[in-house]
Amino acid sequence: MMRKLLAALAILVVWEGVVRLGLVNPIILASPSGIGSALVTDGVPFLHAFRITVTSIAIALLASLSIGVGIGLIVGATAFSYAAFGPILSSLFAIPLIVWYPMLVVWAGIGPESKILFAIISSLIPVALNTAAGVRQIDVRYEQFGRSVGAATRTIYLRILLPFALPSILAGLRIGTALAVAGVIVGEMLTSTDGIGFWISYHRTVYNTGHVYLGMLLAIACVLIANAVLSHLERHFGAWRLDELANIAPA
Amino acid sequence: MTTAAAIEVRSLSKDYASSAGPVQALKKIDFDVPEGAFVSIVGPSGCGKSTLLQILAGLLSSSSGQVSVGGTAVTGPAPGKISFVFQDATLMPWKTAMDNVLFPLEIQRIPERERIRRAAHYLRLVGLENAAQCFPHQLSGGMKQRVSIARGLAQEPQIILMDEPFGALDEQNRIKMGHELLRIWEATGKTILLITHSLTEAIFLSDTVIVMAPHPGRILEQVDIDLPRPRTYDVIGSPAFGSIRNHLWRMIEIEPAEDEAMSTAPAL
Amino acid sequence: MRFRVHAVQAIFLACFLAVWELATRVGNVDPDVLPAFSTVLRTLADLVRTDAFLSNTAVTTTRVLLAFIIGAPLAILAGFYVGERTALNARLAQPLNVLVAVPQSMLLPMFILIFGVGNVQKVVFGITHIFFVLMLTTIAAVQSVPVNLVVAARSFGATSTEIYRRIYLIAMLPLLVSGLRLAIIFDVIGILLAEMYASQSGIGFLMMRWGEDYRMKELMAAVLLISVATIAFNEIMRMWETRLSAHARTST
């Protein structure tokens, strides 16, 4: 632990020195002190922007999760629906997501709505595809079991099939989360009035490198937070799977 | 044993459409299962025994004919009346043994105290009262199947249908579970209809063995097993057992290798 | 079942196009906001005859190809190098995964600070998009080659080149092609993004400008063209992958 801290400190010192000594053009690389001063002068608007970005990401992910799981459950319900609609979803996923954005701005304006929609579209398909795949691989006997004990279809899906599909859903959510975070921030960079992406973009145009790097760090923080939440979810919901794999039961 | 039939099947047929043309999975199946009886169905792959069981359970519809359980026609699943035990236990891995047994009772809206009473009772009956809080991945194959049987019993059905319940177990455990099942059957008096690949298992467990053949799926013969009860493993080596088994085997021509292992195994 | 599957897919597509077409004709949708399918098709037909559109398409395609030609071999070589050396691979695994976890699109402003707004920046941006995904796929491909096959071949006296060619390559090809497919898609995303953000040329630039001018017909025409092109590309690559997988399974 101590070693890691010392190593980090050493990197910071070298980093600072490299920039101050002019070894690297200060426009290209901000020094730690440059980032620090950006935080001091414009900390408040940046944090406000951070909140907007994180809120947009959260809304987008919640929507994408619900819609994606819903679509995935329907597509994965039978072998036929999977064979028919699975390829359609995969093909849609091949389209470079960025091409949707200019249209969304025309339709939804330059506020956070267009970013949220863009993030939803970006993350929807991996969630849906993985949910469908997860449901497909469930032994058909579980559905028969549900029916044999008198469970309604909704109960079978929500209480028997969905838990089985959870590990797959979470895997899809991982991909979807990265795409949603990128979607919101990139959208803010392109056309926006606020949010981390907007501020990064603005400060780049006036060569406030310190501010740009501060923004980048906050953007990366968004990614790390999202991943941490996901890991927590995975541990909570996938726990029985991990246990299952870890223990080979006696014959 | 009363003479009232728990299961009545009359002229049951089931046809499928397949890429190779129409397939007659079952043709004019006729049989009765008396209440409290233990009946096995044997036959080679493709003879329709699984299909038959699923139709009896109300999980599959028939093409023609009548099926009734306890006097009423089967039109769909009959929870609380018919329990189905699947080949691979089909337990939910994220629930404990106790919660697995409780699940169908919850669905069937049995009040909570009664649910817990039944679950505890039947887990004890199958010998797993100490494993109630274990998860399926902590249990052996035989234990998982016992949980599945407890789950079936807890619904206090009139009949229990079992589709190759011991298929996933190795031979030692199959023998043990066979004994267990007989003990449970004698303690509860339920009507049991069981599908198995093993002639030996079928003869050992049952009052009657129904022999089926494929193309189309049909009943060849119903053989009453006149061996005395309670049955222990020694009976498998007896000449009476052997002649019944040969009789059945000749009817079906199952690979001798598969069954020979069981019949020449030393008595426990 | 195959026939029914394709029939359902065709019906689904037809319904989608029908709704799109009728939204403005029969529905209350403003044709300036959502032009009908037929309008978009007509616009596309006109566009592909205009010099401006064609030259911008050429510019974008050139950037994409350039990034690929430079980045793909680098990525494959790097992947091969790391994949072969298990110790190195183990040590790099964690930092690589962290790097990949950060969506590269977000780093565009940094690239502009470093490289400016010219073609170099765009191509380099595309290269980074290609690099990591293809390198990781190559590493996985190298590790997927069944070790016992290599050992068996050596015991028969096969030379190194023979082993590489007949065993490694065939076993790796399906995964490699899959990596190439992803790499090109990421490449296109990167280039388009860079063009949308800060550029005076390219399809991305055109699309942004059309968006700002509310010229939905042209914008949707471009989206339609790109969508169809990438889906077609994707399907072709997928078919190739499947064929290579089957070949790998039978010949090794």
What does this structure look like?
The complex is a heterotrimer of chains A (251), B (268) and C (252). By secondary structure, chain A is an all-alpha fold. Chain A has one domain: MetI-like fold. Chain A is built from 10 helices and no strands. In chain A, α2 runs antiparallel to α7 and α8 packs antiparallel against α9. Chain A starts with a helix and ends in a 5-residue tail after the last helix. In chain B, strands 6-7-8-3-9-10 form a 6-stranded mixed β-sheet, with helices on both faces. A 4-stranded antiparallel β-sheet of chain B has the order 2-1-4-5, covered by helices on one side. Chain B is an alpha/beta fold. Chain B is built from 8 helices and 10 strands. The C terminus of chain B is likely disordered. Helices cover 35% and strands 25% of the residues of chain B. Chain C is an all-alpha fold and 252 residues long. Chain C has 2 domains: 32 residues; 217 residues, MetI-like fold, CATH 1.10.3720. Helix content of chain C is 84%, strand content 0%. The model of chain C has no long low-confidence stretch (mean pLDDT 87).
Tell how many strands the DSSP assignment of chain A holds: 0
Helix content bin of chain C:
over 70%
CATH topology of the largest domain in chain C: MetI-like fold
What are the secondary-structure elements of chain C, in order, as H or E?
HHHHHHHHHH
Question: How many structural domains are formed by the residues of chain C?
Answer: 2
Any idea of the CATH class of the largest domain in chain C? Mainly Alpha
Runs of chain A in which pLDDT lies below 50 for 5 or more consecutive residues are 247-251
List the helices and strands and how they pair.
The complex is a heterotrimer of chains A (251), B (268) and C (252).
Chain A: H1 2-20, H2 32-76, H3 79-94, H4 100-108, H5 112-136, H6 140-148, H7 153-190, H8 196-205, H9 209-237, H10 239-246
Helix pairs in contact in A: 2-5, 2-7, 2-8, 2-9, 3-5, 4-5, 5-7, 6-7, 7-8, 7-9, 8-9
Chain B: E1 5-18, E2 21-34, E3 38-42, H1 49-56, E4 64-69, E5 72-73, E6 82-85, H2 97-107, H3 112-125, H4 141-154, E7 159-163, H5 171-188, E8 191-195, H6 199-205, E9 208-213, E10 218-224, H7 239-252, H8 256-263
Parallel strand pairs in B: 3-8, 3-9, 6-7, 7-8
Antiparallel strand pairs in B: 1-2, 1-4, 4-5, 9-10
Helix pairs in contact in B: 2-3, 2-4, 3-4, 6-7
Chain C: H1 2-25, H2 37-47, H3 51-84, H4 86-101, H5 108-115, H6 119-144, H7 147-155, H8 160-197, H9 203-212, H10 216-251
Helix pairs in contact in C: 2-10, 3-6, 3-8, 4-6, 5-6, 6-8, 7-8, 8-9, 8-10, 9-10
